[in-house]
Amino acid sequence: MTEVTDDDITLIQDMLETMHEACGIGLAATQVGVLKQLLVLDISAADDNEPPKPMAIINPEIIEEEGELEMEEGCLSIPDIRETVTRPETIRIRYNDASMRVQELEADGLLARVIQHEMDHLNGVLFVDHLSAAKRTFLRNRLRKITKGEIDIDYDFVVDKKKPRR
Ligand code: GNR
Ligand code: NI
């Protein structure tokens, strides 16, 4: 993205609302059918004692990574499946904020995890793509059901009501 339009601001707000509605802590534009290098996150949503801290991250790039950590992941696009994924523990990213200002952020723990998970989404990669072939074989039937729309979810997209749906 080279600029943030009023429509993009609305998209960011709708994505944050969709994410909160689904009790998620991150959401990538590709997950709502928008092919833009844009993601939103709010890891405070995972902690009742933390005030909300919504963020929009545009054009993210990982500029440093260190360590390795196993953590269980889930995904709003792959309901009811949780598996342990190994990823770098600490990352440093460069990105544009909603005003297109260049920012850098060092992240570890859950924040580093959700950023890497969302950046994967922007490249069409899902957390199950990081699993061993054996684990994927084990999940194959459930993944097929999700693909065919045979799994019900209890959350919905929040869409821009002013704009016709494409
Ligand atoms: O809500 C989410 N929780 C989560 C937990 C561990 C690792 C990654 C995530 S992201 C996920 C929301 C989601 O699917 N975003 O793409
Ligand atoms: Ni996801």
What would you say this structure looks like, in words?
This protein is α+β, with helices and mostly antiparallel strands. It has one domain: Alpha-Beta Complex (Peptide Deformylase). Helix content is about 25%, strand content about 30%. The strands form two sheets. Strands 1-2-3-6-7 form a five-stranded antiparallel β-sheet, sandwiched between helices. A two-stranded antiparallel sheet has the order 4-5. The radius of gyration is 16 Å and the shape is globular. The chain starts with 5 loop residues before the first helix and ends in a 19-residue tail after the last helix. The structure holds ligand GNR and nickel (II) ion (NI). Ligand GNR binds next to strand 1, strand 4 and helix 2.
Descriptive tags:
166 residues; alpha+beta; Peptide Deformylase; five-stranded antiparallel β-sheet; 3 helices; 27% helix; binds ligand GNR; binds nickel (II) ion
Secondary-structure arrangement, i.e. CATH architecture: Alpha-Beta Complex
Give, in order, the helices and strands.
Answer: HEEEEEEEHH
What is the assigned CATH homologous superfamily? Answer: Peptide deformylase
Compute the number of helices.
Answer: 3
As for the CATH topology, it is: Peptide Deformylase
